[in-house]
Design goal:
Elements: H1 2-24, E1 50-55, E2 63-66, E3 72-75, E4 79-82, H2 88-99, E5 108-114, E6 119-124, E7 130-133, H3 140-146, E8 159-164, E9 170-175, H4 177-182, E10 197-200, H5 204-217, H6 224-230
Parallel strand pairs: 6-10
Antiparallel strand pairs: 1-2, 1-5, 3-4, 6-7, 8-9, 8-10
């Protein structure tokens, strides 16, 4: 009787927690939408980026600069200029206006030579969560591989991709990388953009096991192994 009662309570808790876990892990709830992720538009200069400032008619003013932690760059004649947060074209227009009173024909080109802030963040059920450098084109699966791969507890059919949308509002999308892995839908392996977040949630059974460990095994003095060993064959 005692074994039956314990088994009934255990099954009840498993079913209850499994249903709660699935509700909590609904990714669309993060921003009220599970629609497509939208591109962020033009590249914005970031702190630490290396820029080449080229003057077509005044090469003596050419500069190679690093965007400082305060977001500014230092240039001849115009001194301090805010660069972080601007597109290269916006910075070019600002520099033209600043140099116009100083020189004739201030035709300028802005070249982003290296991208310091090109990174994505991979978190959740991966072997090595953290920042992953975005040195070139990268997909969701490639970022996960760079983070050590999926754990056995990962929910590979509901990975969450978070990206800054218009006005820096987060947009989310569910990605089923299991379909990309088995080849049934390679389009699920989406290309990433700088500052994307790839979050790999726990599988429902992993959430159940965690809950049992935290709230039953550590708090209720029941020897589950003993009861199962006593079950007659």
């Amino acid at each position: 009787m005692k074994k039956t009662l314990v088994s009934m309570w255990l099954i009840f808790f498993l079913l209850l927690f499994a249903s709660c876990a699935l509700a909590v892990q609904t990714p669309g709830a993060l921003d009220g939408s599970s629609g497509p992720v939208v591109p962020t538009g033009e590249y914005r200069i970031q702190i630490g980026d290396a820029l080449d400032i080229k003057f077509f008619y005044h090469p003596e003013l050419n500069e190679s600069v690093i965007v400082r932690p305060d977001g500014r760059i230092s240039l001849q004649l115009v001194y301090e200029v805010q660069a972080a947060g601007l597109s290269p074209e916006q910075l070019r227009q600002i520099l033209r206006e600043k140099y116009e009173p100083q020189i004739s024909k201030p035709e300028i080109a802005i070249i982003v030579r290296s991208f310091n802030a090109q990174k994505v963040y991979v978190d959740g059920e991966v072997a090595k969560p953290g920042l992953v450098p975005l040195a070139g084109p990268m997909t969701v699966l490639q970022s996960i591989a760079s983070a050590g791969g999926l754990k056995d507890t990962a929910r590979s059919n509901e990975i969450i991709l978070i990206r800054r949308g218009p006005e820096n509002r987060p947009a989310t999308m569910l990605v089923n990388v299991q379909k990309a892995i088995d080849g049934s839908d390679p389009t699920q392996d989406l290309s990433l953009q700088p500052a994307d977040i790839v979050f790999v949630p726990k599988s429902p059974i992993a959430n159940v096991n965690l809950w049992i460990d935290q709230y039953i095994r550590k708090n209720i003095p029941i020897n589950f192994g003993l009861y199962y060993n006593l079950v007659p064959y």
